[in-house]
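Re: weekly structure request thread

Next one in the queue (356 aa):
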Amino acid sequence: MNNSNPQLPFIPHSRLALGAGAAEAISDVISSGFIAEGAVARKFEQSFADYFDVRHAVVTNSGTSALHLSLLALGVGPQDEVIIPSFVCGALLNAVSYTGATPVLADICPGSYNIDAADVKNRISDRTRAVIVPHLFGLAADLDALLALGVPIIEDCAHAVGSEYRRRPVGTFGIAAIYSFYATKVITTGEGGMVVSNSADIAARIRDLKTYDQKDEYNIRFNYKLTDFQAALGLDQLQQLRSAIRRRKSIAERYTRSFEHLDLSLPLYDTGHIYYRYVVGLSTNASPWIQALTRRGIGSQRPVYLPLHRQMNRRECPVSESAWRNSLSIPIYPSLSDEEVTRIIDAVLDTAAEKA
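Done, posted below.
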């Protein structure tokens, strides 16, 4: 089962997947003569809100901007604390820091990689204004336990467009939710983001803050708009979402069947899991596995580049530390062919045998 044939093309960890209608959608925007944020962006917002059955959706130029504006809309400022998990990218840390608030790191659950509600409870203080809850790798966090804490929840759905919790779309449980449409995300607009909320007040504040021009009164506002180019791409991607999720789940099923006999911790099964990433837990450091899979023509990586407790030189998140050292993400995206999936499976099996 050796996959190290140098004539076979390298399979990257992530690969852009655009629908056949993407070029036509962008061409239509060019033909319209209006390419800034306008009618197409409004249509994307409404379509997104309708798709996920929320009242309000506001596009932004990135997921980080969406998170920043959500915190500001909640009134978060320098005297406040915001609880975030350590096992995430730096965007959460940046968004909290932009407001002047203090980020408080919480650990994760070992099975799901999602923020641990019990650890969050221990870190709540009278200064806590919000908890940011990522649904990591496409699996919903334990929202029942988190909502029971009585602190406003901002759902981070950057990995979870189309994920469900108790048969209901994630992003519809907290006071607000944010999405990222970066190039490798579930839906892409190249760069871009979205805030959704059932609160008209929250949505109105975000819409006011995201653009600074043509305002009667001066307040600090931002240039966080999304172009109609990007919105057209997002609309096309939204139309492909159901089929893309079906393909992700199909690939995940093949992986799980192939790896269930190995000494690996496989992703938790849940009908609402969309498998933005297929992350396995190893009994050893992930680096040798990454190197071995690269030799076999397969891109893989740690699913989080560097957890926040390491970036901040802290030590209080032992589960996050273990996950960072020992977790491995292998390719899973809709444009993978069946033959490529077979190559990835064979490469993982060969590497497991090599490391045994």
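The mean pLDDT is 96. The radius of gyration is 21 Å.
Next request, please.
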